[in-house]
């Protein structure tokens, strides 16, 4: 019997529907047959998720914002990335010597991640950079901040640059201080002369005004040099670590879902092996 062209698609769709129904029936029968294994897997997945969540340490994240004086932001970020690599490898002794801190503090540090505050592609980025620290205990944040600042300020290049700059400022401050003392002495002498009326007061008033102006200028320079000396280190802290109570990491819900996925996958694999083994046994018996 020759079928019409209109009937062929209908027969094809009907056959597809039958195959899909058969597939669903087999799947339902498969899961019904091994339902005990899957129920156990679900319970085990929930239990394992809760268990691993309970034993996993609470993690907290905090941020420190820094400004670099001698190195570029990408160079500072590379240094922090290297520290994080040492942390991952468990090289606590090496890292503790670099940061001048205790190994116990580092064992409560999970990770360090640095990035620029604003990515500006210029040779000298005026913006700072920040470091995100993930810790197991917020109580180490103060010690960690001191360790990070120490480590960044005591690389060989930064240490030499900082020492040289501080020495230059100290020499300038000493010279300016001497000049201020001389001017103070001159001012005192002029005031004494005025009080004794040994010179023409009008000309002396001009001299006093000039000395006062120069004294003000020299004192402003002295204050400026002292300020620059105070901030002559390699990095300055713009904002320190702030302890936060909000935990980071995988939540209980996600942990339970992951546990169920793992256990159900294992249950399916075991059930599939059992099903294939039974089919092979039946086929062997039929052929015997």
Structure description:
This protein is of the alpha+beta class. The protein folds into three domains: 9-55 and 250-281, no CATH class; 59-156 and 238-248, Alpha-Beta Plaits (2-Layer Sandwich), CATH 3.30.70; 158-232. It has helices at 7-33, 35-55, 73-89, 92-99, 103-107, 141-153, 156-196, 201-230, 252-287; strands at 59-68, 109-116, 129-135, 235-239, 247-248. Strands 1, 2, 3, 4 and 5 form a five-stranded antiparallel sheet that branches. Helix 7 (156-196) packs antiparallel against helix 8. It is rod-shaped. 14% of the residues are buried.
Proportion in β-strands: 5-15%
Return the CATH topology of the largest domain: Alpha-Beta Plaits
Q: Give a quick account of the main beta sheet: strands, pairing sense, barrel closure.
A: 5 strands, antiparallel
Strand tally: 5
Oligomer: single chain
Distance between the termini: 41 Å
Structural class: alpha+beta
**What is the top-level CATH class of the largest domain?**
Alpha Beta
Give the uncertain stretches in residue-range form: 1-5, 199-204
Query: What is the succession of H and E elements?
Result: HHEHHHEEHHHEEH
Shape: rod-shaped
Rg, alpha carbons: 38 Å
Number of domains: 3
Helix content: 55-70%
By DSSP (H or I, 4+ residues per run), the number of helices equals: 9
CATH architecture of the largest domain: 2-Layer Sandwich
Average pLDDT, to the nearest integer? 82
